[in-house]
Amino acid sequence: MNPPNMPAQPALKMPTTWGDRLLRVQSIQTKVSTSIYIPSGWTFCGINQTQLDADILAFIDAENNVKAKTTGAVGLRDAAFDKVHDDLRYVMAMVQSIARANKNIAVVIIESCGYFVKPKHGRPFRRNAAFNTVIPGKVILTSDEPGFNQWQMSRDMEAITHLPSTNTSKTMVSDLTPSDILYFRCKKPDTNKTTYNWSPWFRLIIGSGGRTIGGGGTASSAGSMAA
């Protein structure tokens, strides 16, 4: 069971059929654009309303091409959906950060943006996140996938540093520079039969130590943890 004081958490719950996916995507698009809790002109990890709208329109056009039986349309439709799916995960992280800062109305905020609220029962809570510790320049990274994980770090989400793999859903990174803004991501290792996608980037302002130093006030950076 999750801790009783855990704030409400959003869930995407994307359907499996293409028609239902279109409806789900458009529902979230409309609700995010009209929610009173989302600031006008929002930008989060390189995604904004204009980019989200453009990617969703590309997905709709690609799905229409599939229905028209255009050659090669299925692969293009799948790629367009993957982009939208990633966009919505970034938006979900933004919604989560706003809900976390307003715990008394967290459920209202989440549902106003078209996301579901995760039940508080079930497996222990995991998320893709970065936390500062009491030691300056030392951070803890966590993954929502149990077991083996690969990790990456970047200053700009383009030039990438590969971090050591782990056999658990947690790792530590040391000797970082306080006040730097860094991005991290993780994924399950590929197998002979399956290739896994990297998670969306999660952002952290590196702390200078102390138990009151938070994670930068952004999604997936919920504060300090003991090292």
Describe the structure.
This protein is an alpha+beta fold and 227 residues long. It folds into 2 domains: 10-117, no CATH class; 129-225, Immunoglobulin-like, CATH 2.60.40. It is 32% helix and 21% strand. It has helices at residues 18-34, 49-67, 73-101, 106-112, and strands at residues 10-11, 43-44, 47-48, 116-117, 129-133, 139-142, 149-154, 160-166, 170-173, 181-187, 202-205, 224-225. Helix 1 runs antiparallel to helix 2 (49-67). The longest helix is centred in the middle third of the chain and has 29 residues, at 73-101. The protein is globular, with a radius of gyration of 18 Å.
- The end-to-end span amounts to 24 Å
Question: Would you report the number of β strands?
Answer: 12
- Based on CA atoms alone, the radius of gyration comes out at 18 Å
Low-confidence stretches: 210-227
**What kind of sheet is the major sheet?**
4 strands, mixed
> Helical percent range?
25-40%
Overall shape: it is globular
Q: Assess the beta-strand content as a share of residues.
A: 15-25%
Please work out how many helical segments DSSP would assign: 4
In short:
With 227 residues, the chain is of the alpha+beta class. The protein has helices at residues 18-34, 49-67, 73-101, 106-112; strands at residues 10-11, 43-44, 47-48, 116-117, 129-133, 139-142, 149-154, 160-166, 170-173, 181-187, 202-205, 224-225.
